[in-house]
Amino acid sequence: MAQAERSRDTRALLVSMWVSVAFAVVSLGWGLALGSQLIVFDGLYSFASVGLSLLAVLALRVAGKGADEQYPWGREMWEPLAIVVKAAALGGLCVYAVVTAVGELLRGGREVSEEWAVLYAVVATAAGLAVSVYLRRRARHGSDLLRAEAAEWTGDTLLSLGVLGGFLVALVLARTGHAELARYVDPAMVALISLAFLRVPARLLGQAMREVLGMAPSTDIQRQVRSCVDEVRLGYRFTESFLRCAKVGGRLDVEVDFVVDDGSSAQTVWQFDEVRADLARRLERLEPRGYTTSMSVGFTADRKWAL
Prior knowledge:
CATH architecture of the largest domain: Up-down Bundle
CATH superfamily of the largest domain: Cation efflux protein transmembrane domain
CATH class of the largest domain: Mainly Alpha
Number of helices: 10
Helix content: 55-70%
Distance between the termini: 31 Å
C-alpha cells in the first residue's frame, strides 16, 4: 500500500477515534443521568472503540515502515493482529452486556425516562449514520483496518437504530398505562442487540485469523489471481502452472511455478524475467486496488519441483 493511501486511512481512523471520544462522553453522561443500562452500554462500547481505533492507527503506521532486517517479509502482520484484538475486545464487551442485561431482567427491569432516551437514540443514530457513510466511502480503496472500522460503525449505527425502536416501544407502553412492562424494555434491548451485534466481531475475527494463519485470501481475490496466472501460462505456452496465494494486511503474497517444455516461448533467464514483469503488471490491476504484491515466480521442466 502506498504511503499516500496509508496517510488517508490514518486520517480517517483518527476521525473515527475522536468521534468515538465524543460519543463515549455523551453516552455515559446521558445514560448515567437517565439510569439507562442500554445507553451506558453504548458509551462503554464507544470508549472501547477509542482505544481500539488508536490501536488500528498504530498498527497501520507500523505496517507502513516496510521490511528491514528484523522484519524481512514486512510488518503487514500487525494489521490483522490489530483486528483480532479489536474483534475479541468488542465480542467480550457484548457478552458482558448480555449477562448484565439478563441479571436486570431477573431483578424486575429498570425504569428510564423514555422521552430523553428517545432523543438520545435519534441523535446517536443520525451521528452514527454520518460517520458510517464517511468511513465506507474512504474504505472502498483503503486498508482492511479501515474496512473493519467502517463495519464496526455500521454495526453501531444499527445498534442505535435498535435502541431507538426499543425506547419508542417503552414510550408507547408508558403512555398507555403499561409502565410495569416498560421497565423491561431497556435490559431486554441490551440483551437482544448485544447478541445480534456479536456477528460483527465474529466476522472480523474470522477474516483476520485467516490472515494470521496464512490461509488463502477471499474467493474473489483467488479468482482474479488465478485468471492472471492462466493468461500468462497460455500466452507463453507453459504446460502447467501452480499457484499459492495468501493475503496479510495490505500485502498480497503470490507464489507461482510454471512448468516449461520445448514448446514454451520463454526458455532463457531474460525471457523468464519478461514473464515475471508481465505477471506483475496484470496483478497490479486486481480489485480492490491498493495491495502491495510480494511475488515469487519459478520455472521448471520437471513438475515435481512445483508440487
